[in-house]
Amino acid sequence: MEFRHLGNSGLVISEIAYGNWITHGSQIEEEGAAACVRAALDEGITTFDTADAYAQGRAEEVLGRALKGERRDGLEILSKVFWPTGPGKNDRGLSRKHIVRSCEDSLRRLGTDYLDLYQAHRFDYATPLEETLRAFDDLVRQGKVCYIGVSEWRAEEIERALTLADEMGLDRIVSNQPQYSMLHRVIEPEVVPASRRGGLGQIVFSPIAQGVLTGKYKPGQEAPAGSRATDETGGRFISRVLKDDVLERVQRLVPLAEEAGLTMAQLAVAWVLQNDNVSAAIIGASRPEQVGDNAAAAGVRLDESLMARIDEALGDAVQRDPALTVSPPQRP
Ligand SMILES: NC(=O)c1ccc[n+]([C@@H]2O[C@H](COP(=O)([O-])OP(=O)(O)OC[C@H]3O[C@@H](n4cnc5c(N)ncnc54)[C@H](OP(=O)(O)O)[C@@H]3O)[C@@H](O)[C@H]2O)c1
Question: Which residue in 47, 147, 229, 305 is deepest, having the highest Cβ count within 10 Å?
């Protein structure tokens, strides 16, 4: 495994992190989840990402049990707050009340007394940013959280948070967690430059586009049995990318991966890690073998001509519009 600093912060994380959205507490059974976490640890992965809302809290519980017995200070555990965790009007968003309550619940479910990174899962237009930043800062002072970050915030939202934190003397955000892959590059024009200026690193999610960049979904064919596309919850999310024109373009990567001596998944994970503003790629897995496959992308360098041929192969299947970085206009 290779390690990188989380933005300009002093925290070092594994450049491949393991995340449990869709899988733990939902798509896969506890035993399979534990096997994937074991495989991640065996690959040298030390960074684990989850969220309060994944599988209504079950994902944090499963991860907490799977990591039990590991040396806590050798791990970096990341969680998030924003999406609904219950039916109540205050069980969502980035109000002081919800941030404080949800952090306590995450710590209990994960079986730990601190989070390495606590992330605002989206921007909350219904809460003053001052209130959110102050609540996060309090958690840092209390030792419940080491660092704070955000997820899918727009460039101007990141910049406002940094300016406000400096004016108020509060802890600064150190990271952003956006979707980023060969197919989804919307952070490149605005979010990445703003993050570089502000000292934030990207912890990117869905680096293999939820499985699409493995090439296992073929144009005009049924999705393979047991894949995310066939899962009730996962299927809803992946369907946005499962378009025949995209799948046809992805198949053009197969000879490029072969030539580079990489699997398709390794090529996709290695591709996001070529961006030096990326602190880590968070991989998901439904089976331990996938963790072993994808983690082998650590430290891989792709040369310029290969990068150019990837662009040529994917053509207009690549999303580049920065306007695609959005948070819900109203609290969900
Ligand atoms: N901040 C946010 O809003 C946000 C949003 C989404 C995700 N995330 C984070 O990012 C993490 C990763 O997201 P993701 O799961 O979408 O990432 P991903 O790595 O792009 O996709 C993972 C899925 O692809 C399939 N797969 C993985 N490796 C494979 C291989 N070698 N061969 C064939 N299939 C393979 C598996 O699904 P099947 O086997 O079921 O097909 C696996 O669950 C999440 O767990 C979460 O921590 C954050």
Answer: 47
